[in-house]
Amino acid sequence: MASVRSQFPAAPASTDGEAQPGFGTASSESTLSEALLVLRKRKWVLVATVVLGLLYGLYEAMTQPVRYTAYGKLEVGTGATAAYREPGFAGGENLNNEMLILASDTLMLTVGREMDLANNPAFFGITKGTLPHRNIDDPAVRQAVVGTLLGTVKAANIPGTQILIISCVSANPKLSADIVNHVMDAYITRSYQSKYASTDRVSKWLSGQLSDLKAQVEASQEQLIDMQRKLGVLGLSFDPSHVPTTESTQKVDALSGALSGARVARILAESKFRTLQSANPDNLEGLLDVSGLDGELNRLRGDIATTKATIAEELVTRGVRNPKVEADQRHLAELQREVTTEQNRLLSQSKDAFIAAQANENQTAEALNQAKNEAYQLRDATVEYNLRQREYETNRSLYDGLLARLRTAGVQAGLEALEIDIVDRAQQPPAPTLKPTSSILLQNGIFGLIGGVVLSFLLETLDTGLRNVAEIESVMQLPSLAVIPRVRRISGDSGTTLSVAQSNVGVLATSKSQFSEAFRSLRTSLLLSTAGHPPKIIVVSSSTPAEGKTTVATNLACILAQRETRVLLIDSDLRRPNVHHRFGLNGRVGLSTVLAGAAKFEDALRQVPEVPNLDILCCGPVPPFPTEMLSSEAMHDLLVRCSEEYTHIVIDSPPILSVTDGVILARQCDALALVVRQGKSSRHVVRRARDLLVRAGAPVTGVILNAVDVNSPEYYGYYGYSGYSYSNIDSESWEPESQKPSHTQTPTGAA
Question: Membrane-crossing residues (predicted)?
């Protein structure tokens, strides 16, 4: 079957999710103009909601209850206690707290108990009859009384002042004034009592704290006096930084100096001892001056030298045996023994001096350490005294501050109640307070308008029908070929006799109308849809039934035949044929009989006098297997033959989603136009039909939007040329019906 399309190049099929070149999709961005279009389209929703709002407002204004409002004024000032308040206190900042107190449950319960409102019928809006006696202590009764009071009594502040306005609304004017006055009196009493009780509690607490602080001050003072006795000072103003020098400090100073002298003496004595101990005895005379020794050893050594010289002289003159020489030698030996003895004595003396100096140093250091310990104890006592003195001063300051606060609280307790004054007591209102009818109507009208706007956009969001070209191009990703307006069916009241074809085919009866001009525009779009030459085989189909594909196919065939070209209209809807009804033809012979071989093609063709160049091949008898017949070789050969004999072939196809017949025919055509009825076809349905056609390789040329209301906001000005060349009578004189007709001569305008 592909040979039919191979002879005539088909228009390129659109791919899924991509727009074909040559047309633009509408922007998805919401603009103010689009919102206005939605409101214009849903104008009756707006009108209905506004009217309902006004009616309800009128009902509310006529049935609003009669209420009396009484007012009273209170001044909440700083009073005589301003001098006793904390720094930074501002009376105006406290007004919000006071208004909350006025609206408290406790205050309302006090008023209800004083006025016995639980047994007052007027308070609950009962004008006739009495109430059974009820106790306000009952939880349900208490809740009812307090809740009613909170709903009727209001407190407000006059900006820039310290004046509060108390108001009450009720059905009884006297009751309104009485409630306001009782609320003000109860508020003043409560303010005095609560503030006095609060101050009294503070005073009692301060008194208890003062007793403990007084005991602490006395204990601190006694400990401070004991420390002064220990330190030997007098007076409570003792400064620890000026402690007088005592015996302990003098002893430390003296022993420090003595220890330094003893350490120097020990070092000198040890140096002398170490020097003498390590020196050569023969060289000891060289160390005598250095070591500070006396001259005894030097004298002995001088005598030894003199004796040695004398012995030497006598040995020369007298000889060795001379008594004098022997006596001198004995004297020399004695001198040497004395030198040795003197050396030993000097060494022993130096050692004793070193030992004595070392012992003196140790004793002096021990005495200094003892004196230091006594000085440290004195320092610790001074620090403890400092701590005791600070503790005493802290306790004394706290005690003095609390004592002053206690005296202030005693004065403040008697003056707090003077801050609240009654400026105006509530008077019985002379007339009820009613809300103006105009205000109620305006308010409800605005609410109705807002509700209508919200409802309009909600309905627009829930509406899945396709209503304008922009939506179709955005959803289908296909160009729009034409927009067919919805018109009324022709009527015979004017005395003009019309044939069946003219009554059912709009372009035959109203050649100068919006309807006819729309099909001329469709003809132009189709002829220019394929490259090289106009399409021969044109299939007209739809997603679902009753979208007007038969109306489009019949009128399109008539428009194409008006160009002095041979056009063939084939009714391929072998399940619900309708073309022969539109032209008033006999449908016993047609496509099914030709494909079955029961009739020749030339014998099955029909003509209408109104369109000489148009041949019609009706459906014929409904076959048992339409799909097999349309997909047969006979159907393919028939289309090949018709393509050679006719300039254009218009095929009325079954719906795409209902049966597969439309998809089979779509593969054999040169151009396929998908009809979408305004407001009926939903987005997912037409998108599903497009996907089926694209996957089948059908040359989907574009979309035809059918049965469009030209007066809708989406198409305002779309047919603006109608007033230029076409009359309203012609443009509104014919409208195809959407229901399939019975097999009678009553034609309809849509398949």
Answer: 44-62
User: Cα dist. 189→118, 235, 266 in Å?
Assistant: 22, 54, 96
CA gap 419, 77 in Å, rounded: 5
Lowest mean pLDDT among 17-21, 282-286, 354-358, 598-602: 17-21
- Region of 679 (left: φ > 0; alpha: ψ -120 to 50; beta: rest) is left
Two structure tokens written together for 556 = 């399109």
Interacting residues of 636 by C-beta distance below 8 A, sequence separation 6+: 1, 3, 4, 668
Q: Integer distance in angstroms from the first to the last C-alpha of the chain?
A: 28
- Both tokens of 147, joined, read 């809740």
Per-residue DSSP letters for 495-531?
S----HHHHH-HHHH-SSSHHHHHHHHHHHHHHTSSS
Across the beta sheet with 671-677, what order do the strands follow? 480-485, 700-708, 671-677, 537-542, 648-652, 567-571, 611-617, 605-608
- Give the ranges where 85-172 is alpha helix by DSSP (H): 95-102, 105-115, 139-152
Q: What is the pLDDT of residue 468?
A: 65
Cα-Cα-Cα-Cα dihedral sign, residues 286, 287, 289, 290: positive
The pTM of the full predicted model, rounded to 2 decimals, is 0.47
Identify the structural domains of the chain with CATH numbers, from first to last: 32-64+435-461 (no CATH), 465-490+501-731 (3.40.50.300)
Of 120, 354, 411, 389, nearest to 243 (Cα)?
Answer: 389
- pLDDT tens column, 68-99: 888 898 888 755 444 444 444 444 557 788 88
Higher pLDDT pick, 25 / 405? 405
Tokens found for residue 183: 């609320």
Exposure string of 60-85, with b = 16+ CB inside 10 Å and e = fewer, is ebeeeeebbbbbbbbebebbebeeee
Bridge partner list, 74: 164, 422
